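Handout, page 2. Input:
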Amino acid sequence: MKTKILIVILALVIIACGVLLGIKFMSKNTNTVEANVTENDSQEDGLKEEDNTPKTKYSGNQRTIAVMIDNVGDARPQTSLNKAMIVYEAYVEGGLTRYLAVYKNEDIETIGPTRSARPVFIDYALENDSIFVHYGGSPRALDDVKKLKMDNANGIESPANVFRRTKEKAAPHNALTGTNVIWEYAKKQGYRTTTKERNVLNYVVEEVELEEGEAVAATTVNVPYSGAKVKYVYNPETKLYERYFANKLQTDWLTKETITTKNIIITIANNYSTDEENGYGRQEIENIGNLDGYYITNGKAIKIKCEKTTRAGKTVYKDLEGNEIKVNDGNTYIQIVSPSMDITME
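Output:
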């Protein structure tokens, strides 16, 4: 009898221990699941937070469109320069300049007047991974477009619906285009409409204020090309530079808005005349290498280095300590100038 009682007691003890171990095991698993859920929630929240991070105006993977813009007297005033992410200006011939306007994330009906290509602008279209839009070109430029197999729309060869003429300007300074018709043409040609490339400029959301120790005043900036002088005047209320060309405030042909820019970059590069086309004075610009320059924004300027290793390689703009500069979120004019040019800032 006593033996049976001991066996029953022993069995009850074993059962009780099993229950206690089971409870402990279940509790541990529950805690692990809760920890995993918490961790997963945190990861999801992190992803959501990353997705909601403020983006710059030029974020995204849309491919850029780079359009050659005329800049002689009959072509001015132009339209849609204010909508470009970057506008490059450089010598072409006869002391004249021309623009390459690079557009991203914009739906624009009218851009122009468009004009013919020159080799140096091909370099900047390449480094922006752009669809290159031009109306003809110098012999070497057209040869480069062909050899480099550039995705391009040429007004001399492209369907008439990509370019149109306006009667309000004299030919040949009256050819216009727009982003919608360029995209339609690009898709028909099988061109990429997206890019894996980062923007050439390191745009940031936070406002960039150049440091007092390194920066100099730049509320007025003079860039005296021989054919016509460029001047920028800073407006502290809008925090933008208003642009003058040939001593006249630049305005948009259609909207009548003042031409403005948030940022100015100056790249100092040697230029010289070539023998192309029997002495028309076409310009070769030595923009490959480690060049001096300036970054100008919010009424101040710093010296920078402009590093470009190949024609298609992106120019990296660095401060004098070797760090890539941060650029204010807004449009930028990049002035390619000769070392002999007397640039002044005050």
